[in-house]
Amino acid sequence: MAQTPTTGAAAETFRPIAPRPPPSSAVGPLRWARDNLFSSPLNVILTLIGLYLVWLIVPGVIDWAILSADFTGSTRDDCPSDGACWVFILQRLDFFIYGFYPDAERWRVDVMFLMLAAVLVPQFIPGFPARGRTWLGIFGLTLYPVITGVLLLGGLFGLPFIETGKWGGLMLTLVLSYVGIVAALPIGILLALGRRSSMPVIRTICVIFIELWRGVPLISVLFMASVMLPLFLPEGVNFDKLLRALIGIVMFQSAYMAEVIRGGLQGIPKGQYEAASALGLGYWRSTALIILPQALKMVIPGIVNTFIALFKDTTLVLIIGLFDILGTVQAAIVDPAWGRVAVEGYVFAAFCFWVFCFGMSRYSQGLEKKLHTGHKR
Amino acid sequence: MAEPAVPAPPQGPAPWRNPRVRAVAFQVVALLLLLWFFWTIFNNTLTNMESRGITTGFGFLDNTAGFGILFSLIPYDETNTYGRTFVVGLLNTLLVSGLGILFATIIGFILGIARLSPNWLIGKMALVYIEITRNIPLLLQIFFWYFAVLRTVPGPRESVEFPLGAFLNNRGLYVPAPQVESSFWFVVATFGAAIVGAVALLRWAKNRQDTTGRRFPAWPVSLAMVVGLPLLVFWIIGAPLTWDIPELKGFNFKGGMRLIPEFIALWLALTLYTASFIGEIVRSGIQAVSHGQTEASQALGLKRGQSLRLIVIPQAMRIIIPPLTSQYLNLTKNSSLATAIGYPDLVSVFMGTSLNQTGQAVEIVAMTMAVYVAISLTISLLMNLYNRAVALKER
């Protein structure tokens, strides 16, 4: 048996004394504070300035938003305190979510929200079967917009027709950004392929299209869509305001999408193209089966980032007279019955956008980390 | 034995299978479709404009505009032409974007460096600031500053007083206006000369160090030159600069310079929003410089400051420049949100009011878009030149 050799029966076994805990100056919060807050004279000054700023801002904000805010009631008179009047937000919440959509038909919007959640949530659950995720994603990109379009607009299957002028609030923001991204994706793919094409005419057309839309502000695109589109169409043909805004947004967004996808296409090594043609695949088949699946996967974070930008940019439609979340808030805060509630309204709208955008940016950062295969320290 | 049959020379594919032929055909079809598309649009537009009685051409630029503009850098009144409203709008756009770019860059670099600070509190504060501002739409921030802050400050009599004689009230921000005498230009000239001299001194010092290895304290000396010489001249010729400080006279302020609230709200929102993006760009640029570089510079015995200045920053700049350029472009394009609060920028004055009055949508939209494309191209050209200067010189 392999045991520790002993010199004799009398030899005592070696018993180390348990290590003493390190001095309190080497571990624990004190050490942490010394390393991270007070490591040099400059850092001491910076920390003190930082603490002063925190003390200046945080208690005031907490007091305004929570401690002395009013949450219950139904009118302005229920907000006697100096704090925030959240009663206003709670009372007008339906307006901020559904806009002018008729009360009796709001279940249609709720169905849209639920279906959206059913499509999106499984994408974030790691344990969900991959095949199901793919099918849900395909459903979300193809059938879902059609179904919700029919559902929201009505006029078919006995659903009353709801004109788009009545759409508004969070629902309109989601419609604009979802349609914007779903329609911009295929156009963007075609543009990106065209920009990398070996045919000079196609390439030139794509480059001019992309650079032109990227060079102008979205607001001028929206103006153009609402003022010039009617001029371009034959007499008698007219789109409604929402559709015109959507066309403008999709054109604008597809140019940005094209640049993101081009980044992915450039990242595919040449061997993949050569291997595809060695297998006898033609341009479209090698693009669809070999190149795009790899390229699109690489640029998912970029696509999510474009989507965040688009989501924030949908607020611009209020300038051409559509009521997205910000538009409904803007309309509600001028109501004289509520007095000064501008700050509450903006904070609410900001919170809505922040939750969506922050969530999405965290998601895309997580993906980037997952896809990042280089070494990092 | 029969001679083996000579194989027929390989024939090329049939013309409709030949990639070259197909490419040409495809491009011709695409071109024809495009021409047809534009021709249809052109025709439709002409008929539509005729039926609505809209004139065409750029003649309207010489007509009298007949509307006032809130804020203008050049003299303007209602009797001026649409051409002049275009220039006024363009200058206002350039003013707010230029100032926005300047301050967003400064704040952005501070934020980016603060994010990497070894000080935990400072790093986290910068993080919180960045995550809040960049995830809230810019238009919402503009509205917040304009409607919730600047429109609710008290009237002139209860103005908020700032140090150095600045006053904020619901009519805008009143700041002291510099009143220069003609001899002040000597000071400016000295300042210019000092900068030229300092650049020459720095070059000479670098050359000398490169060739002989001897150093010269060029930075302190040139700094002293740039700051000291103009001050000396200023003092010698008897301080030819006075400040016109705004004063409350009756119901309003007299004197000083008035910045309208629309301008402040737009400028503030643009600056704070873009600064958070620039902060992240700076942070990721600095972090992207490989650790081997900093370790090598430490091994060479460089101090932390030297290693930052000589090793890390020059390499980080290469990564920072391209995304920084697109942020500058974004800021310039975003300045068109001025329309929403009524700051008279190009889109608001020209694409808004002028278009409504003349109805000449095609010309006005084309002119406005051309201006933005031109600005975009200019900024990217300048930044590309700078980028080429700092880019990696391959052997």
UniProtKB/TrEMBL annotation, chain A:
The answer to keyword Membrane applying to this record is yes
One term under GO cellular component: ATP-binding cassette (ABC) transporter complex
Biological process terms from the Gene Ontology for this record are:
amino acid transport
Indicate the principal place this protein occupies in or around the cell: membrane
Q: Which residues form the ABC transmembrane type-1 domain?
A: 170-359
Q: How does it sit in the membrane?
A: Multi-pass membrane protein
Q: Provide any one GO MF term from the record.
A: transmembrane transporter activity
InterPro entries in the record: AA_ABC_transptr_permease_3TM (IPR010065), ArtM/GltK/GlnP/TcyL/YhdX-like (IPR043429), MetI-like (IPR000515), MetI-like_sf (IPR035906)
Q: Which Pfam families match?
A: BPD_transp_1
Q: Which family does it belong to?
A: Belongs to the binding-protein-dependent transport system permease family. HisMQ subfamily.
PANTHER family (UniProt xref): INNER MEMBRANE AMINO-ACID ABC TRANSPORTER PERMEASE PROTEIN YHDY (PTHR30614:SF41), MEMBRANE COMPONENT OF AMINO ACID ABC TRANSPORTER (PTHR30614)
Protein name (Swiss-Prot/TrEMBL):
General L-amino acid transport system permease protein
Instruction: Write down the species.
Output: Rhodospira trueperi
Give the classification, highest ranks: Bacteria, Pseudomonadati, Pseudomonadota, Alphaproteobacteria, Rhodospirillales
Automatic annotation (TrEMBL), chain B:
**Cell compartments where the protein resides:** Cell inner membrane; Cell membrane
GO CC entries? ATP-binding cassette (ABC) transporter complex
Instruction: For this UniProt record, give its keywords in alphabetical order, as a comma-separated list.
Output: Amino-acid transport, Cell membrane, Membrane, Transmembrane, Transmembrane helix, Transport
Q: Which Gene3D superfamilies does this entry report, sorted A to Z?
A: MetI-like (1.10.3720.10)
Main subcellular localization, coarse class? Answer: membrane
Topology in membrane:
Multi-pass membrane protein
- Where is the chain membrane-spanning? 23-42, 54-74, 94-114, 126-148, 183-204, 216-243, 263-286, 364-386
Q: Domain named ABC transmembrane type-1: which ranges? A: 90-383
Q: Which GO terms describe its biological process?
A: amino acid transport
Q: Give the family this protein belongs to, as stated in its UniProt record.
A: Belongs to the binding-protein-dependent transport system permease family. HisMQ subfamily.
The keyword Iron-sulfur belongs to this UniProt entry's keyword annotation: no
GO molecular function annotations of the record? transmembrane transporter activity
Q: What is this protein called?
A: General L-amino acid transport system permease protein
PANTHER family in UniProt: AMINO-ACID ABC TRANSPORTER PERMEASE PROTEIN YHDX-RELATED (PTHR30614:SF37), MEMBRANE COMPONENT OF AMINO ACID ABC TRANSPORTER (PTHR30614)
Q: Which organism is it from?
A: Rhodospira trueperi
